[in-house]
TrEMBL record:
Origin superkingdom: Bacteria
Protein name: Peptidoglycan bridge formation protein FemAB
Ranges where the BioF2-like acetyltransferase domain occurs: 159-292
InterPro entries reported in the protein's UniProt record: Acyl_CoA_acyltransferase, BioF2-like_GNAT_dom, PEP-CTERM_FemAB-rel, PG_Glycine_Bridge_Synth
Length: 350
């Protein structure tokens, strides 16, 4: 007999059980981990939820969720919130079907008119759901066996940019201490302001680093004493994912971002990784082209969105015409103002 239930993420025993389950699942990602859910929930004042389908005391289907509240974008349940993957992990489609129904019921009960699933098994033929495979692509490839081979594996044009970064007077450091965290946040905040995006709360980065322990770190490229590029990376099942990264205005001239990603490839291999996961990018975006220039082949990702009966479809797409004026305005804000206002808005940008 199978039954669906909500899991208490404040119970250490339940968390250990779920962490073990995610680690065993071929499709399990860092964003399925309870460590991720609890960290982002605490840091953004949202609520973490988990639904499981159990059969004979074994987990047959698993769905991590973040219930997000935003004055600008409304209420939504996201799997997985602030992540680029997630969705239902299930032994078979019939088990996933039970969780689709359960999450729809949960969303209605909690007055959430929208659900987003990023990856995993997707609903087929269910009313209210829209499935897309054309909005985002993932980029992932194996790491080379040594430093020279890693450089050679990069296509010629991009390799020339990396060489310029290697020839510059730049230094590289890796760690998770207070200085690394401060440097990363300063660089990242400037980078996203320049893109027209509110910066996430500083507490989010700290919470994820603390929750992931050895499975996360920061790599920073500096010119003298000044950080110019920095990335917070996640490590999961032998793969490194540079997740929150960016550079200052000087980074492009110095080729600091190119140096940063190459150094991360070397660092990840030295700590035992065999794969480099460049994460997702919007199809056709500048980031999409940048990753292709590194020789990564785009892989379309499957996303699903549900809208409650009678509700308007949620639009939190930064490339939509609705948000274009807001993005243009944000790019012109003084950095201290953007850093003050951004975290209050970004808590709802899951």
């Amino acid at each position: 007999m199978a039954a669906v239930r909500a899991v208490d993420l404040s119970d250490p025993g339940e968390v250990r059980r779920l962490e073990a389950h995610v680690a065993e699942q071929p499709g399990g990602t860092a964003f399925h981990r309870p460590a991720w859910l609890n960290a982002v929930a605490r840091a953004t004042d949202n609520r973490a939820l988990v639904l499981v389908l159990e059969r004979r005391d074994a987990i047959a289907a698993y769905l991590p969720l973040l219930e997000v509240h935003s004055p600008l974008f409304g209420r939504v349940m996201v799997s997985s919130g602030f992540g680029v993957d997630g969705g239902i992990l299930a032994d078979r489609p019939a088990d996933a079907e039970a969780l689709f129904g359960a999450v729809e019921e949960l969303a209605l009960r909690r007055s959430c008119p929208a659900i987003e699933l990023r990856g995993g098994l997707l609903p087929q033929g269910r009313t209210g759901w829209k499935i897309r495979h054309d909005s985002h692509c993932g980029f992932s490839t194996d790491l080379a066996p040594d430093d020279d081979a890693q450089l050679t594996a990069i296509p010629r044009k991009q390799r020339a940019e990396v060489r310029k970064g290697l020839a510059g007077e730049l230094t590289v450091s890796v760690g998770t201490d207070a200085a690394q965290r401060a440097a990363h946040y300063a660089v990242y905040a400037e980078s996203v302001r320049n893109l027209g995006t509110p910066v996430f709360p500083k507490a989010l980065f700290g919470a994820v680093l603390d929750a992931f322990g050895a499975d996360a770190d920061i790599l920073t490229v500096s010119q003298g004493e000044t950080p110019v590029a920095s990335v917070l990376s996640l490590y999961h099942k032998g793969a490194v994912m540079p997740y929150w990264g960016g550079g200052t205005m000087a980074a492009r001239r110095l080729r600091a971002n190119d140096r940063m990603y190459f150094e991360l490839m070397l660092h990840a291999r030295r700590r035992g990784c065999t794969r480099f996961d460049f994460g997702r990018s919007k199809t056709g975006s500048g980031a999409f082209d940048f990753k292709k220039n590194w020789g990564f082949e785009p892989q379309p990702l499957g996303y699903a969105a549900w809208t409650a009966p009678g509700a308007e479809a949620r639009d939190a797409d930064p490339t939509s015409a609705k948000h274009a004026a807001r993005i243009a305005l944000w790019k012109r804000l003084p950095l201290p103002v953007a850093n003050l206002l951004g975290p209050h808005i970004a808590r709802g940008l899951a």
